[in-house]
Specification:
This protein is α/β, with parallel strands linked by helices. 44% of the residues lie in helices and 12% in strands.
Amino acid sequence: MGKIKSIIFDFDGTTADTTPCIRYSTIKTYREIGIEPDPDMIATNMGLTLRQFLALFFQGDDEALFERVCRRYEEVYRTEGIYMVKLFDHVLNTLAKLKAAGIKLAIGSNNVQVALQYYSKALGLDKYIDEIVCVDDVEHVKPAPDIAIEIMRRFNTTPDETLVVGDSTYDIDMAIAAKCPTCGVTYGAHSADKLRKAGCQATIDSFDELIEFVLGK
């Protein structure tokens, strides 16, 4: 890995612990129509887009009902679940040190822009994050490379200068497709073993380990 000039961070499960929010919103939404989602499936599939994620638990082929489920989930997420989200340990201090070293920082997520902008301000990420690129900004979401390519375009950086940090194989697949180096976090959706099997070059157990990994100190 050469000198890193920019870093793309996944949001859900990497930068912020959104599992309680997503679990609560999913279970409440589906229980209202008599479906009990599998909690394990919730935890291991959070890298998908909202519609892909909710389709995992839907039963039948009633498209109108599925649309209502999607709208209801967004309502529960926005009015109740959103307040359950918090940053993982050491995120702000680590971002501050990376920023001070002159590294450009971005969020690259399959989440939506309105939620990410809210979190960025509410959690203090906006002091350090230079760009947010998500499902609203590209034609193809993760695991396609579009999000990484768009961030590199905005930063004017090359793949070998751009590190992708994520917790799922969707992040790793995106990075590989974009020809970027990878670093997986082991506290999110997928295990270290699963990330390595997907081609992840390195893994860390805590967000602040990025400082030594990137800066060597």
